[in-house]
Amino acid sequence: MFKIGFIGLGVMGEPMAANLLRKGYSVTVFNRTPGKADKLLELGANAAASPAAVARASELIITMISNDDSIREVYYGDNGLIGAIAPGTIVIDSSTISPALARQLHADISAKSGAFLDAPVTGSKPAAESGSLVFMVGGDLEVIRKVQDVLHTMGRKVIPMGPGGSGSTAKLAHNTIVGINVAALIEGMAIAASGGIDAKSFLELVQAGGAASKMAELKAPKLLDRDFSVQFSLALMLKDLRLASSLSDELKTPTPILEAVKSLYQVGDAMGLGELDLSALAQGYEQWINKRITNHSSVEDSVAAVD
């Protein structure tokens, strides 16, 4: 079995690493924020003091980090991965980053006689916990075959997407659809609420009809319970939509719906909703229609003002 290094122990990374430990892999972990590794250490993980230390202890390294700047810090910063990778090391990045940065990592790790896969995931926190993520992978097919058992420990499906950078491109296209779907669901709920339709009955209709979607299935219970704890944060969705917008500009692909929905998430972020689940976009609509979308009480009576 591979000796695995795991860097990035947030909402997604911690349960992914935990599944590897439960399967019996030796896992060395690092997180830039102290304390995030405590639960994994109880499961038997080894702690490292830097990304470089993770590289020196590992044959296979997985990173799950929030954005391009943080990836650059982990890979290229002081005591970063790139300077410590041994020949033959395989590195998998499951973050959502720009395809250009993913291609740069492919080139730079290949120059160190290592192999790199850009392998972002879909499924959010519940799928990370249950080991049912879907990996979309850019890179060499032979390398993908070598690590497929590791990926299947964390996910239910591994889909090769093409050469380096293809996994990141696929993820941005995919999350464009996700962001639009959630916004459409909430906007429809706002119309229904304004028209006096019971939210529970309306969501039953959505899931039984042509508007059904995976996002409706995941977010309906959260919306009805007013549970905005994070499965996937509004701020991260906005980050992904911005990356998708930049990519579409590079590809000269018109994306009018993406641009409109990106602006909507920017409004939500400006309202202070960024660190909540992306379904908290509902709170913006509630302010605009002056009532909850899950019942017919006024905002003044029922909805806490956004700080």
TrEMBL record:
GO MF terms, alphabetically ordered: NAD binding; NADP binding; oxidoreductase activity
Keyword list, A-Z: NAD, Oxidoreductase
Pfam short name (any one): NAD_binding_2
Entry's Gene Ontology BP terms: organic acid catabolic process
Residue positions of the active site: 171
3-hydroxyisobutyrate dehydrogenase-like NAD-binding domain segment(s): 165-283
Domain 6-phosphogluconate dehydrogenase NADP-binding positions: 3-162
Similarity remark: Belongs to the HIBADH-related family.
Name of the protein: NAD(P)-dependent oxidoreductase
Organism, scientific name: Paenibacillus montanisoli
